[in-house]
Batch of 2 targets.
Target 1
Amino acid sequence: MASPSLAARGQRLGLRAIAKLGGLSAMADPRVRATVERLLAGAAHQGFRAQLVAGRAFAPKPGSGAAVRTEPVRPRGLFDLTPTEDQAMLQAAAKELADEVLRPAGAQADTGRAVPATVRAAAAEMGLHVLGVPVGLDGIAEEASAVASCLVVEELARGDLGLAVGLLAPAAVATVLAAYGSPGQQATYLPHFTGEAPVPVAALVLQEPQPLFDALAPRTTGRVTGDRIVLNGTKALVPGADSAELLVVSALVDGEPRLVIIEAGVDGLSHEDDPAMGIRAARTGRLILEDVTVARSALLGTTQDHADVVRRARLAWSAAAVGVAQAALDQLVPYTTTRKAFGEPIAHRQAVAFAVADIAIELEALRLVVWKAAARLDAGTDAADLVAKARALAATHGAMIGSQAVQLLGGHGFVKDWDNERWYRDLRGAGLLEGVLVV
Amino acid sequence: MIDLEVPHRLAPLLEQARGMAEEVFRPISRKYDLAEHEYPRELDLLSAVIDGISRSGVGERAGAAASTRATPEDEPTGHKVQGVGSGRNERPGGATRNGANLSSALSILETCRGDVGLTLSIPRQGLGNAAIAAVANEEQKARYGNRWAAMAITEPDAGSDSGAIQTTATRDGDDYVLNGEKIYVTAGERAELVVVWATLDRSLGKQAIKPFVVERSNPGMKLVRLEHKLGIRSSDTAAFHLDNCRVPARDLLGDPEIRIEGGFGGAMQTFDNTRPLVAAMACGLARGCLDTATELLAAEGVVVHWDRPAQVHSAAAARLIQMEADYEAALLLTMRAAWMADNGRPNSMEASMAKAKAGRTCVQIALSCVELCGATGYGERELLEKWARDSKILDIFEGTQQIQLLIVARRLLGLSSSELK
């Protein structure tokens, strides 16, 4: 920064500067204006950086016996697209939540960049936050639940992706604690998710800001010294970064990508705002780790578990892409068959009708690939390739669907009176974001 | 229970089909690509093997003939085969079933991984057999037995618009007399029977169109020529002239009455079951391309790491990832359409989705694999260039890409053929 002094005085000064400087005649001089703009940009980035304050106290508990895990599902060896009764029930509940609560709140939550308390309460009532926690740990998962989670994520994302991410972010933390946690970690943290007042904001943090980010090679590092780990790095697009109480963060620890549990309030952990193109209701921020020191016992799972999380997160985002794409398609069918041009519904033209057909084809194919990958995860077999395929389809066809859904509405697609512009923004994210959600 | 893997019990059948593709088809692929119109004698032996497979304990068939046929041996009581066209098993709820449609699709995928043209030339597995299986009454099924039947719909002036065919069938005593031109008849020269579609009364539109089983030896049906083609050269494509071709009335397949409902539309439903098969052919061809290209590229150090994002791979590896993804998409749409048919669910839209996705995907993959492999892909030493030529037909026959999109769009948008033309 050219002049840290201005930036250091914070955002408020920056805002005041706009009001004061903006009207000055000196601002007509491009050199002066450029300098001021640069200073203001610095202020905007640094002004809100703040210590992540401690929320609740997570009193360490030793745990006993072996860690509780969900059992893998035994496949029947039949090709079948029918959800189990339990899955269908969860799906129906998620559908209702999506239609009754998420969709109506979506636009406002996007603008306000917040999950309304009423929405959070409705989701908690459904037990969303313990979807991936086994019954043995007071959750609701009877067995491995990637398929069930995909069905739920799809439905919620169909309602609104930003809200879905905000709601499911703490659930993802609970899921990974259940899936990879030691008995002590499970005993220490999970009661805070399964109990009366579940942790409202927590995040599984993999994403980093650099282009070409590779989740298996995070730049965030953890240096092991004795029984401590010292973490340094920057994480991007973290839902609820300003209010999270618990974080599971990926870092390269002794050269291996690992997950580390970090409680809010630890020294050296700060956040700054990091709004993005989409998923705005999830209120994304950056996390800055500067010599954040945790006990070695804060390591969660193994390197393989980290890779497993990367896959499960990508699959969850792909399931989310299915949901948002479905929302777009559901809206395009009535629109194109009623909107008239040249004296007839625009769907009577092949150029329009074929575009809708292509959306349906790619969307349904993506859903099937997501299901196949999820079923494979539940069976405990290797799903790396299928997850990558779902990811590739979500990235390419998902973005195409978002674009075409705006295109077919023309100007209506571009303005905020309709939901399409938000779906366009959200669909771009679903094909590229890492972490945050898991199945 | 959601599970999209290949059913366990099909493993032996698919292993046989794969063996057939690798041991029989691949070694003679180039030979019959170069020697267009020469009959691949090797296939006579093969059809004996296929008959053996279908008589064996596997209980599934490897070709089109099985696609629309119920398999009584593993059919629980209470399920009846539906009438004209559908050939589906009606199921009053209950457990899911993996039947002949899925097993046929997956086995055809394997044989087409070897060679599409040769698969189309396997005796007694023609699309005409699929029509017979779907539409014929029991007496006719018994009479035509296990004879090889080709399908003749297309005419010089009626391709995708198959409702506009001009070939006429006129009743004359105990016979029908057929007149007209038929082109693009796959296996038309080699088959023993040809299912010829003709109209009883042009003024009555599609409902008057009926299929007739014509003996290849019938002197009224003359082979005019065999086409020279871009690809699938090992499969003969015939053109016929029907000149007062007399066909016994009992060889009209199915219902001889002209009905407002169900007639031609019912017959077109045959496609709901054959389109997933053609989609499976496209998947098979795409699989072959990908397997070969992956092997050739691996020798050049191009390897996919599935856990790493596409953008940190080499451009070639990133394209492999995208192609594998689109292949998987096409495959699962195909398996879904076949599964729906096996379980008595209307699948017209899903069959067309599968055909549309698989058809365009196989062409994209085949052409990309040629591109990625450069001179080796483009030259005749490898089969990649042949597959790229073969692939194009899979996005055309059994309904072009555009026809599939029309069907999908009409269903999806609830539009009639007069609204969405």
Target 2
Amino acid sequence: MSALIDVRNLTLKFRTDEGLITAVEDVSFSIDTGEVMGLVGESGSGKSVTAKALMHLNARNAVYSPESRITLHTETGPVDVLSLKTARELKVVRGGAISMIFQEPMASFAPAITIGKQMVEQLQLHSDMSKARAREISVEMLDRVGISDPARRVDQYAFELSGGMRQRAMIAMALSTKPKLLIADEPTTALDVTIQAQVLDLMKDLVSEFHMGIVFITHDLGVIAQTADKVSVMYLGRLIEEGPVREVIRNPKHPYTQGLLAALPKLDDLEAPLTPVAGDIPSPLERPTGCVFHTRCPKFLGDICKTALPEDARTDPSHRVACHIHSAEVPA
Amino acid sequence: MSDDFLISARDLSVGFKIGSGLFGKSILKAVDHVDLDIEKGSFFGLVGESGSGKTTLGRALLKAVPITGGSAHYRDGEVDYDLTTLSGAALKDYRKRAQLIFQDPYAALSPRMTVRDIIAEPLEVMGLTRTREETDARVREIAAKCRLNLEHLRRFPHAFSGGQRQRISIARALVSGPQFIVADESVAALDVSIQADVLNLLKQIQRDMGLTFLFISHDLSVVAHTCDHVAVMYLGRLVESAPTRTLFAAPRHPYTRALFSAIPSLDPDDRGRAQKLIGEIPSPTNQPSGCKFHTRCPYAIDRCKAEEPVLEHPGDGHEVACHRWRELLDEQAA
């Protein structure tokens, strides 16, 4: 496996009327070819903003720090994503080597253009194939994602498909250009569980078939356990824990990750009380000093948590956590 | 026994007229001949996929959509209302006794009213308090139960997080002193870490105030942890109903079983073992014949296509509508 995309010290703020708001702070990770990374966090944790940064897709009021680096490794060499400016340059990361699928497929398809036409348009934008060939590929892809009667469906509009079918069509469109990296932002959250199970199965098949990397954004740890190879947990814009999926779920190190897992209603123990993570996620305008989680942390150590930012500590080579409890135990 | 039930529905149906095509008007049956008994003081769960009719059933019991067939009664010891004919002063009185908590706490609260005014509005509209002092006292009492302080009451909803907003919605629903609360996907829009907090609050309020809840949700693990009794709906029909622990220990309907196995397991080594349902819920305007689930059921036989199963009451409190449930149970045991 080789690194597909490498994110280093990503810091991203938004310029607003109320001042600069920190959305992502000093986040580093990398994804290999064929690897599925789950990105977990609550609303406001910065997971979607991080994913959008990979495609340089954030709004115009986004300010990246000078240290932020995102490097995409393509066949023609490394691409410095954040230095891309013109639409022509950005094509590589927007629909070319990187594709994205969204939570709400209805909002992602143009309502008055047939699905086929949108797929053909995208294919032609990223290659010099003929319209007839692009249509052929579109039908093949619709068939591949399990849409019955694809030759007829290709001429339908998004509103004619059910929610599950629409999400399949969305996946077909995202994969038709054979991206190296797929960003899936809560792709099954709007679906019923039975349909979610079908779509997750489909995605797992496609990962092994197309051999791409995936960033899977979700707030559902069950979905992560079922799909991801490794997990990154974000809180208030910081990556607080990262490790192999088994490690993080069975042996979470950060008090926040532990709290998230404890808050989940589990089916194998109906008597277990539900234990919420105390307090509310702070407003981005009142960003806590020191460790961003200290205002809600049940294992609060005292002044050190309020004043000092915890360093990343490795509890084993692949599992890292940003918490003073572990920095104290495991000297760097 | 029937004295113990706050809500009793028999053969309850809700139909909507849709379109007027070449062949005249067609009827969409959102709720189709449902029998439902909700015990007083219970936390009753209603689950199903989108399009199963669970929201419509909840609304029908609140008299928010017209009931088109069957009967439904509300009996709280003080009053006995026939929900199919309820109107005028009695309907107004029922509005105090039965309340709804919505899914989306961002959409449900007016951004231009203070939290105090939002919670006080039902009191003023229903004329339940005579003076401002009385209103304020009542608002403060309910707000305290929902862990909102005086400082919160002066602010506007935009200043609150999702969990806090949902607590405001709950306070507003409780202020008229209802007996029956329909909570429609009330935690679905919340983050996991906050969801548990709101669920615990709902349970505590239900116990402290002796309320009866109809808790509508698509999330089975949430239902498993909060409800005493669960009913499962599919395409407008009730397919299974049982005490929570019984249902989760030994589901009888193939649909319920499929729903359970579709929940993503938290165990990364437990991948792909699930028994997956094929296809999707059919359109309610074009419903299958016989058992409505037969188009997706792995155990369907010819009889299922022709004859619709009725909800059986085997006497153990675990009701199921499936032709083959006994057979499948034996098969499983064997």
